[in-house]
Amino acid sequence: MSAQQHEPQQEKVWTEELKVQGEALLGKVKELAHEGNVRRIIIQDSSGKTLIEVPLAVGVVGILVAPVAAAVGAIAAMATDYSIVVERREDGPASS
After folding, report:
1. Nearest 5 degrees, angle CA 14-CA 15-CA 17?
2. d(CA 73, CA 48)
3. Could you list the residue range(s) of the whole structural domain that residue 23 is in?
4. Residues of 36-71 as b/e, b for ≥16 C-beta within 10 angstroms?
5. Could you report the per-residue pLDDT of 2-48, keeping only the tens digit for each?
6. pTM above 0.85, yes or no
7. How far is residue 31's CA from residue 74's CA, in Å, rounded to a whole number?
8. Is residue 70 part of a domain?
9. DSSP string of 18-68?
10. Is residue 95 domain-resident?
11. Domain for residue 59, yes or no?
């Protein structure tokens, strides 16, 4: 038997902040939830207070979308300015 060596993977994580109006919030969250490299979505109000934080994992996005959509829809109904903080990941070989 020969042993195979696998190069360890290092996950690079970064965040970006998007500004949206209430009516655009739900659509943007759904769009982000279906992107493959989004790990977490945090919705904040205009003062920076976190209203909801949604961790996403590959393969469970479909399960999470309906309940999260309902919660985000309720938040969006308040018709104000929001920030969406998006935590993304990029898998790549570990640097030595």
Report:
1. 160
2. 19
3. 10-90
4. eebebbbbbeeeeeeeeebebeeeebeeebeebeee
5. 445 555 556 688 899 999 988 888 888 888 877 878 888 899 988 89
6. no
7. 17
8. yes
9. EEEEHHHHHHHHHHHHTSTTEEEEEEEETTS-EEEEEE--TT-HHHHHHHH
10. no
11. yes
